[in-house]
């Protein structure tokens, strides 16, 4: 499992410096350049100058502020590797900008919720008639009788572009997204874009509101600010998940003889592996499913076994997902600007197993233990549940 920190939109302030760092301890005749590069392990709020440096580093509100090069005694220092250094802008200064004016918008509405019909109509009228935007909506949204039988909404409805989930690819046609509903609506919008996700504007019209900060009362001014590029950005990390299943095909066997006349003692034949990939915003859950037995899965970190989870299951979540299922299972909440992955057991059959926080970018592998009594089930943001058997694995 690998955590990807994606930028929703390019930013001018995100350009990194190309100047090189020099260690004043090893190179007495060279000066340090005022670059934001530094050791990636430091996450302090402030940083003091390194040995031999005469420049003061400014205090910053970011947890990823500029840090000096690490030195070890009077001679040794850490070799700088630009490929492994993370450049993260101060979260307080992240702003939205457009390379070109946005023309298309995807409106996601919570299905089977009568209270959202009027806000949905008002928003679509404002986008199409006053801003001349191309509006994309799901085909099943327009099949709602309250919308299909509304004659006043008919002229606006004819301007819509429709799509179907899992059938139509709209990843390169959407400039930004507007969600009407709760946190589940935003998760659904994220699942539609398995690559780069456009900026998402979520209005709080559901039961939860961790990810939906906008109120619909003055939606006109807020939507206008986003279209004009005058809005703040909050970057969210997603998990890149790969499920590898041992694909077996059942064959017809009569009296122990296959159709080609070869004697067979097994009714299944291995024909290869099936690989599925997903991008999830909240969490990946491996649980026991309908089985009455406890799940028994092994968790590997960068190829090394770190623990065996015996219980109802295990949750692997992003900082965004730490406020969801992981929090209900007893885990801590992680700020979205902290690059980390949380591993949380679900009702573990142990007194010593507690949630584990690992750095973002590591590879996690979860698979059934050899002595597991039954299979397990995996789900992605609560959707697309699949069964995991012996030999199958989930890599993150």
Automatic annotation (TrEMBL):
It holds the Pfam family NAD_kinase. Its EC number is 2.7.1.23. Residues 33-47 have a biased composition (Polar residues). Residues 26-57 are annotated as: Disordered. The keyword Plastid does not apply. GO terms for biological process: NAD+ metabolic process; NADP+ biosynthetic process. SUPFAM superfamilies: NAD kinase/diacylglycerol kinase-like. Gene3D superfamilies: Probable inorganic polyphosphate/atp-NAD kinase, domain 1, Probable inorganic polyphosphate/atp-NAD kinase, domain 2. Its cofactor is a divalent metal cation. GO terms for molecular function: ATP binding; metal ion binding; NAD+ kinase activity. It is an enzyme of class 2 (transferase). The keyword ATP-binding applies. Keywords: ATP-binding, Kinase, Metal-binding, NAD, NADP, Nucleotide-binding, Phosphoprotein, Transferase. One of its GO terms (cellular component) is cytosol. It comes from the Eukaryota. It catalyses: NAD(+) + ATP = ADP + NADP(+) + H(+). Belongs to the NAD kinase family. This is NAD kinase.
């Amino acid at each position: 499992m690998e955590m990807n920190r994606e930028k929703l939109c390019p930013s001018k302030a995100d350009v990194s410096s190309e100047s090189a760092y020099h260690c004043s301890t090893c190179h007495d005749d060279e000066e340090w350049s005022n670059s934001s590069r530094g050791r990636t392990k430091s996450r302090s709020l402030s940083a003091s100058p390194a040995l031999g440096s005469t420049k003061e580093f400014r205090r910053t509100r970011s947890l990823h502020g500029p840090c000096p090069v690490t030195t070890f005694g009077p001679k040794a220092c850490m070799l700088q590797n630009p490929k492994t250094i993370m450049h993260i802008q101060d979260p307080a200064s992240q702003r939205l900008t457009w390379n070109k004016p946005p023309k298309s918008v995807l409106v996601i509405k919570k299905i089977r919720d009568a209270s959202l019909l009027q806000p949905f109509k008002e928003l679509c009228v404002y986008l199409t008639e006053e801003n001349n935007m191309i509006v994309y909506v799901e085909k099943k949204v327009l099949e709602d009788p309250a919308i299909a039988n509304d004659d006043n909404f008919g002229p606006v409805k004819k301007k819509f572009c429709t799509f179907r989930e899992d059938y139509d690819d709209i990843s390169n046609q959407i400039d930004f997204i507007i969600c009407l509903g709760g946190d589940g609506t935003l998760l659904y919008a994220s699942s539609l874009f398995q690559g780069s996700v456009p900026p998402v504007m979520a209005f709080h019209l559901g039961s939860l509101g961790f990810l939906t900060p906008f109120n619909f009362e003055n939606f006109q001014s807020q939507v206008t600010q986003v279209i004009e590029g005058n809005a703040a950005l909050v970057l969210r990390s997603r998990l890149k998940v790969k499920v590898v299943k041992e694909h077996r095909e059942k064959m017809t066997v009569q009296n122990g003889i296959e159709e080609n006349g070869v004697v067979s003692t097994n009714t299944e034949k291995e024909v290869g592996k099936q690989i599925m990939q997903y991008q999830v915003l909240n969490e990946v859950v491996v649980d026991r499913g309908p089985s009455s037995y406890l799940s028994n899965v092994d968790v590997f970190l960068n190829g090394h076994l770190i623990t065996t989870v015996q219980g109802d299951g295990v949750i692997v979540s992003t900082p965004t997902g730490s406020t969801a299922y992981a929090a209900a299972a007893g885990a801590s909440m992680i700020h979205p600007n902290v690059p980390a992955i949380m591993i949380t057991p679900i009702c573990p059959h142990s007194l010593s197993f507690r949630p584990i926080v690992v750095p973002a970018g590591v590879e996690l592998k979860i698979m059934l233990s050899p002595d597991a009594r039954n299979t397990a089930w995996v789900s992605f943001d609560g959707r697309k549940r699949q069964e995991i058997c012996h030999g199958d694995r989930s890599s993150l």
